[in-house]
Amino acid sequence: MRLPDSFLDDLRNRLSLSAVVARKVTWDMKKTNQAKGDWWAPCPFHQEKSASFHVDDRKGFYYCFGCQAKGNVFGFVQETENVGFMEAVEILAREAGMPMPARDPRAAEKSDHRSKLAEVAEMAAKWFRLQLSTGAASAARDYLDRRGLTPATLERFEIGFAPDASDALLRALTDKGIAFDLIEGAGLAVPPEDGRAARDRFIHRIIFPIRDGRGRCIGFGGRAMNPNAKAKYLNSPETALFDKGSNLYNLGPARTAAGKGQPLVVAEGYMDVIALHQAGFEAAVAPLGTAVTERQLALLWRITPEPLIALDGDAAGQRAGLRVADLALPLMEAGQALRFAILPEGQDPDDLIRAKGPQAMQDILDDARPMISLLWQREVAGKSFDSPERRAMLDRTLREVLRRIRDPFLRRHYGDEIARLRGDLFGVAPRDMAPQNSGRGDRPWTPNWTPGRKWQPPPQATATARGSALASGNANPDAMLEQVALAGLIVHPALLSEFTPDLEAANWSRDDHAEIAGILLASETGIDLRDKVAARIGEEDLETLLGQGHLRVSPVLRSEDGARRCVRDALNKLAARRGADRERREAMEDFADDTADEAVMWRLAEATRRRDAAARSGGSDDDGPGDDDAADKDYLQGLLDTKVWEKTKKK
């Protein structure tokens, strides 16, 4: 069975060689230049320690300077998996999510037909190029000169001209023995219809040859010289050779330039790409007369993780940008995004460069906005949110935007940013905000958590406890519990070995707590940790962190066993509180996705119940304290009350 060349080309486009090779090697990142598609690793085909195996992503080939192994993506799978060519293609097709083409006995014939069409297109490109130098093309040359295109640029992009004659190209090709069906199949001629003879598709137009990533001429674009023409720009029709949605204008050269570190810029049309290239922005591409497609986005992301979409500054340009953003939203993932460069109103890249020069364009690219900015502007620009109903409508629209993001991690970060923008819009942070591990009073927030009631002390709390910082809400309960655990270990360093795994796994709410935990983990058991901590962060800072005044050490911590129970209960409380918070946040995310049901509501209620139980009973799932003796019931609160971390005042 012979596979169609178009299928193999599509497979190469969807899978980079480096991604396939990465399954078998460990890249040497010191030698690798990822931006250029230049990868190095120890060879998977022979034993070596140095990185002599080279992968060139742009060309799609690998080569080992040690054993001289070489090949493309299909050959690599054949060698490493010990399979034949067809099996290698099947493996890669499964990875790319592409169905294998049905067995076609005429596949070889079709492939030969496409090769012949490519030859015809190449002949036409050369013929169009020659016509630009004729007397009939003087107006076209004047136009190109007014647009500022240099002779070198005309040659680089092979710009040509189609004369104002109905069958000039048709006669030129048939005179060379080219059959009409091939000329029509290449999209260059229109068959006889309505009593009219066959004619050229491109008449009295400036011609822009279109090449695929391999450099083959696959189609053409034509700009009308007649101002009354029905279509200002005309592209080749869909053919066996030309698929508009799977290619980009200037793809091959732009890929090379992007590999050298230039930003990949997506412009609207041919002249924009040419103007950008001439101004030094060589990694410029454009869609082929249609809106950007998913396949074109995949091509762009294979070249660079963050292409720049250059938008004309008018309303039509904004709408085009939003269409691209809506298309990309469900396809994006971490490290794969778009940025939008907004040009001044009424100008495209060609206009801006001719009016103000390349630096003006560079400034626009440098100020490119993330996609979230464009989406947010669409939802709020020119709108009033002076009523609860309008604000609720905005929230519903934003939730719909979030639901379209498939990557859960990216969706979470988009939610964070939308929540921040919403808070800025209304002047206050919305109710659905969650504390972060910053240790500051003005903590950032996320939209996936709804706070419960203000923390209150347990019913059995003493008068001293009700006046403590923890009970009054003037301090973070998590931070106070962390202080309890750290204080117990400072007073009894012999417990360090027992609690080392807890310290290593802990997610501290404050940086100074994390620093103290690091000191404890790096210390030897049995030494005076109190003095060591003070020596590292300063006596005054330690006293400020752990409490004020000079009170005696709690009786609970005077014994090692009591300290062990104290530290363990504090850590259990923290685990219960944070586990409940996590459960509640996850449930709220489900709720925000409009999938709330009884199970979700039960999760919310259960998470709240467990958190409240943890606050009352030291991490137990029971609704109240157990049957421990009174001393064990109160020892943790007593620890908070008496600030056990402080030294006994010397007499």
From TrEMBL:
- Zn finger (CHC2-type) ranges are 43-67
Keyword annotations from UniProtKB, A to Z: DNA replication, DNA-binding, DNA-directed RNA polymerase, Magnesium, Metal-binding, Nucleotidyltransferase, Primosome, Transcription, Transferase, Zinc, Zinc-finger
Required cofactor(s): Zn(2+)
The superkingdom of the source organism is Bacteria
Q: Which GO terms describe its cellular component?
A: cytoplasm; DNA-directed RNA polymerase complex; primosome complex
A Gene Ontology molecular function term for this protein is: DNA binding
Q: Which residues form the Toprim domain?
A: 262-343
Q: Where is the composition biased (Polar residues)?
A: 461-474
Biased region (Acidic residues) positions are 620-631
- Please list the GO biological process terms of this entry: DNA replication, synthesis of primer
**Spans annotated as Disordered:** 432-474, 608-633
Give the family per the record.
Answer: Belongs to the DnaG primase family.
Describe the subunit structure. Answer: Monomer. Interacts with DnaB.
* Stored NCBIfam families: dnaG
Name of the protein: DNA primase
Q: What is the scientific name of the source organism?
A: Jannaschia pohangensis
